[in-house]
Design goal:
- The protein is α/β, with parallel strands linked by helices and about 160 residues long.
- About 30% of the residues lie in helices and about 30% in strands.
- The chain is built from 6 helices and 8 strands.
- Helix 3 packs parallel to helix 5.
- The longest helix has 11 residues.
- The two termini are about 25 Å apart.
- The model has no long low-confidence stretch (mean pLDDT about 90).
């Protein structure tokens, strides 16, 4: 995931502070540098499959014309929802250009306009749309946003705190 962020033009520094339940716990510092078009190919898709909606949100907020392409992620069509179609429909409704493939998509950034989107009951999509909505020129309404409680009950409070 961090390598994909670097390819998108983020400068990252990570320090491992401790471990919890056998997993590293640390601090991640990042800053936008010059954003670039980036991709996830078929060999990487399984490693970042759950993060693809968040990466799409990042891409949607990049300067006009930058693109994010995902290939080899056909399993997204059979997750909590058809994440590829729901993601594409939602970001289109917010102003991005999105081309769907059987196993992925290309999202080309455009100024986000806000709009009505449907998270299809999928917590990852609801969070991705909410994050992108912070950069939209008008409000965004997210149907199915309550699904976020599945994985991050305080998400909307935290997002509001971070975007004040």
């Amino acid at each position: 995931m961090l390598e994909v962020f670097r390819r998108a033009g983020l400068r990252l520094e990570w320090s491992k502070d401790t471990e919890s339940a056998g997993e590293p716990v640390g601090t991640l510092h990042f800053a936008f540098a010059d954003s670039e078009s980036f991709s996830v190919d078929a060999s990487e898709a399984p490693l970042v499959i759950d993060e693809i909606p968040a990466l799409a949100a990042l891409a949607a907020m990049m300067p006009r014309g930058r693109a994010f392409t995902v290939r080899g992620a056909g399993e997204l069509r059979v997750k909590e929802s058809d994440r590829i179609s729901a993601l594409a429909d939602g970001f289109r409704a917010m102003g991005a250009r999105v081309e769907e493939y059987d196993d992925g998509f290309t999202l080309e950034a455009q100024p986000l306009t806000g709009g009505a989107v449907d998270a299809a009951g999928d917590h990852r999509l609801a969070m991705a749309f909410a994050i992108a909505a912070t950069r939209a020129s008008a409000p965004t309404t997210i149907s199915g946003a309550s699904s976020v409680d599945v994985s991050y009950p305080g998400f909307f409070d935290e997002l509001a705190r971070l975007t004040r």
